[in-house]
Amino acid sequence: MKLTSKGRYAVMALVDLARFDNINPVSLRDISLRQGISLDYLEQIFSKLKKNEIVKSIRGTQGGYVLNKNPNDIKLTNIFHAVDEKVKTVQCKKESKKGCNGKATKCITHNLWDELEIHINTFFENKSLKDLLNNNKDTRV
Amino acid sequence: MKLTSKGRYAVMALVDLARFDNINPVSLRDISLRQGISLDYLEQIFSKLKKNEIVKSIRGTQGGYVLNKNPNDIKLTNIFHAVDEKVKTVQCKKESKKGCNGKATKCITHNLWDELEIHINTFFENKSLKDLLNNNKDTRV
DNA sequence: TCTAAACTTGACCATTTTGGTCAGGTATGT
DNA sequence: ACATACCTGACCAAAATGGTCAAGTTTAGA
Q1: Does the CB of A118 sit below 7 A from strand D?
Q2: What is the rounded CA–CA span in Å between residue A55 and residue B66?
Q3: CB–CB of A33/A27 below 8 Å?
Q4: How far is the CA of A91 from the C1' of C20 (A)?
Q5: Domains annotated on chain B, with CATH
Q6: Which tens digits make up the pLDDT trace of B24-80?
Q7: Using CA atoms, how far apart are residues A9 and A6, in angstroms rounded to an integer?
Q8: Which positions in chain B touch A6 (Cβ < 8 Å)?
């Protein structure tokens, strides 16, 4: 059970962005340098963040990215959703008429995995970008 | 972020085992049939569970596996640990002298991932095999 | 004592996912 | 016009996943 780097990088980059974008648009190049994430990879990630209206892009010289919402309104849930970081505990397809094993009924531990998913998602829903900013005031990179 | 099938299968198999082992040792073949998990794969999993003293094996005809502890004392944590299902949110090595990015300091979101790990592990520590047995009394497979 | 049931071990492998790179664009401020 | 920065999509190596296969060893019971 692990977090993919896409999810991690997305959050790191957004925290970085949030710290600077009230002055100027922030270029991916800067984020790349500060956070040690490959520029090409960042572009993939920001393309998705933009589609999900988490950031806005400003093209041209001196361009870059800006947050599209208040940091308080950007939850981890939104970020992860944007970059396809899903919490996936069960194989069982929900749409499927059949049960989890190809049998008629729900698999023996189905309720457990559902609970776990909810438990994790709750964490993500209650955490906003703003929380992370405050959290890092003292221990800046 | 997803659960591996090894972890899921381990829990499913143990719940199955716990339901029957007070009568006789339970053969992997039976579990395989009931839960729809490949026998060969189950053998890999039970080998690990045995090393971690979660189950005992009884060889020979009419043999099989038995729980080695009270269901109440087998936490999900123990099971996952046995089959190497780890909760891994951070790349950063804890032993490393250096920081997370190869830089000197902790990465910008380090605290967040630590929190998340704790959040998930807490869930696993508070859940025992016994909880799952009760949970399934009504919705048996 | 023979044999079948069941555990034991370890090698092997195809597929998928991950974590990117590379090579081209296109838009825009100066 | 040109440098800066966004944009897009193809491509790829390596690792993890989710197993299978083969060849044992042990023991209960006929």
Answers
A1: no
A2: 55
A3: no
A4: 27
A5: 5-135 (1.10.10.10)
A6: 899 999 999 999 999 999 999 999 999 999 999 999 989 999 999 999 999 999 999
A7: 5
A8: none
